Amino acid sequence: MSKTEILKSLKMFVPSGNIVEIRAVNGKKTSSGYFQNIEKAADTASTLTGNIYFVFNKIKNSCYSRAQRETMVQNPKETTTDNDIEKRKWILIDVDPKRPSGVSSSDEEKKEAMKVIGSCYSFLKREDFAEPILCDSGNGYHMLYRVELENTKENAEAVKNFLKALDMFCSNDKAEIDTAVFNASRITKLYGTKAMKGSNTPDRPHRESKIIKIPGTLKITQSEKIYKIANMMPK
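Structure (tokenized):
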């Protein structure tokens, strides 16, 4: 794990004064912590085992008073739900290669995921979307688009159909866009930590996730552009 990359990721996605939930999944054990101290969050995350995730949308400050304030709690009573999200700040596009469940991707499979993320990027570029943050998830690739969306049922449905439309246009028989990541409280890989599915083998290794590219100017993609793509989905 790279503490430097973890800290870079948290500073990128969690503005000063906001809180973040770090969640670690290790087999059947789950631990969670809410942090406002980003340095402490990075320190803590770098010591955890298993697959490490974070909530990338803005969490209500009241959640900071839960039992796991500035510490990790195993099998906590509460973790972040959709009702705990104050605002949607990001839309995640997650592309993974098709492969048997419970295993990491091979190098060749991961290349197929890059083809689909490239196709998706080109499609949204033609639709005048702002530049995204591009990330390596370990087994595939992520693009995160900066948005400003209220946490409403209408917007949840729009993001859901937006991802379905992208899947319809850009996925293929070797790699696909995950259409299940539309919910407001979605967790995603904490970049700088490893993706560890199945055994760590030479042909299917555990790889470290990372941010690949951050735009020089991070601009917001307006909601009407998202709705335009969402409305391309056949009713």
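The helical segments are 3-13, 38-45, 107-126, 153-170, 223-230. The longest strand covers residues 85-97.
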